[in-house]
Amino acid sequence: MFKKEKKKKIKKMKIKPFHRKKLENYLKVFYEYYPDEKYTVFHFVRYLKLRLKDNKDAWIGVCGTTGMGKSFFSLIVGILFGRPFSLKDNVTYFPKGKEILVKFTKLFFNVLIIDEAAKQMRSVQWQDKQQQEVNLAAMTERYKINAVLLNMPNFDEFTKSMRRGSILFRAVVIYRTKTHARIIIQRKSRNWRSEDPWGDKAANDTYNRFEKKKKELTNEIILDIERSIPNTIMDFIIPNLEIILPEITDKYSELKTESRKIDSSSDPINKRNVYKEKFEDLLSKITKILFFNELQIGKVKTTKVEAATAMGISVDTFNKYLAKNSNRSTSRTNFRN
Question: Could you point out which of 3, 66, 101, 273 has its C-alpha 20 to 30 Å from the C-alpha of 204?
Fold first, then answer.
C-alpha cells in the first residue's frame, strides 16, 4: 500500500517581536539621515490607531504603479501596528470576495492587507456578487475596528461607491528612488455633498498647467502639487523592506506566486481556453484520420472537399486543422481539391 502524500501546509510566517524590533530600529536610524522630513511612517501608524480607537474602522486605498512599493508599504504598516500579524492570516493574495470577508471577520483591532484589490474591487467588476459583499462589509462591519489596506495601481479603478463611501484614506506612492519611496496620505473630505471629495479636480488643473507650459514634472514638483491639496494629511519616505527583513519579503513573494497559480487554474476563462484547445486538437486528429484514411475505411484517397463536407466545415477550416501540429511529410499525401 502506498502512503498517502500529506498536503503541504503553508506556513503562516508570523511576525515575531524581533522582526518588529529590527524594523523599528532600522527606521529610527534611517530617518536620522533625513532630518528635514516632518513626518515618518510612525506618525501614520499612530494616526491610524487613533482612528480605530474611536471604535471606527479604516479602509485605505493604497495606489501606485507596479514596482513602486505598495505591498511593502502595507507590510511595514502591518508590522508596526503591533498586533498579531502573519503573512497568511493578515494578507490576501489574488483574493476572492469570500476569502476577504472570512479574514476580515476573524481580525479585531488589526490590519488586513488586500494585496491584489484589482481582482475584486475594480470598477469594471462592480456587478460581481462577491465584490458587493465586500462593499457591504466595508459599510457595515464597524465593530471590528480593523484597518484594511487595499492595493490598487490606480485609485480611479475602485468603484464609485468605494471611492465616495467606504474608503476614508488614500495612500499614494508618488515616486521611488534608489534609497526610498515617497508616500503621501490623503483623507476624503468630510463634506458628503462634495462632487470631488478627494480634491482631484484642483490637482489635475495644476498638473495640466505644467503640461501646457511643457515643464518637466519632477519629483519635487509632484510633491509640491500633492501637498497643496487640502485633503493631504502628511507625507513621508520609507526604505526598501527587502533590505531590512528579506525573510519576510521572500516568504511574501512565495505566497503570492502560489496564490497566482491557484487563481489561474481556477479561472473560468482559463478553463474555457483549455477546453477550446482540447476541442481543436481533437478536430485536428479527426481531420488527419479522415484525409489520410488511417483507419482504412472505404476508398483510400479522399479529397479535402469530401472530408470537409463530411465534417460540416469549410475547406479553409479543414486545412487549418490539417496543418495544426503536423509532423507529416507532404510526400505521403495525395492532395486533390
Answer: 66
Asked which of 50-59, 200-209, 261-270 is least confident by mean pLDDT, the reply is 261-270
Q: Is the dihedral of CA 28, 116, 111, 88 positive or negative?
A: negative
Q: Could you tell me the CA-to-CA distances from 293 to 29, 267, 287, 309, 323 in Å, in that order?
A: 78, 39, 10, 16, 16
- Looking at residue 84, which CATH number applies to its domain? 3.40.50.300
Helices and strands counted in the chain (H then E): 14, 7
Asked if residue 256 and residue 287 are part of one domain, the reply reads no
258 and 276 together in one domain: no
Instruction: Looking at the structure, tell me whether residues 68 and 132 fall in a common domain.
Output: yes
Spatial separation of the C-alpha atoms in residues 62 and 19, rounded to whole Å: 23
* Half-sphere exposure in the Cβ direction for 306 (13 Å, CA): 13
Range of the domain at 105: 17-188+231-266
In a domain, residue 42? The reply is: yes
Looking at residue 334, its pLDDT comes to 39
Sheet containing strand 167-176, edge to edge, reads: 91-92, 111-114, 147-152, 58-63, 167-176, 181-187, 232-238
Distances from the Cα of 150 to the Cαs of 100, 193, 228, in angstroms? 11, 24, 25
Quick: pLDDT tens for 250-265: 999 999 888 877 765 5
- Predicted TM-score (pTM) above 0.85: no
Nearest to 291 by CA among 303, 282, 309: 303
**Which amino acid belongs to residue 133?**
E
List, for residues 44-58, the tens digit of each pLDDT value.
999 999 988 877 789
Polymer length of the chain: 337
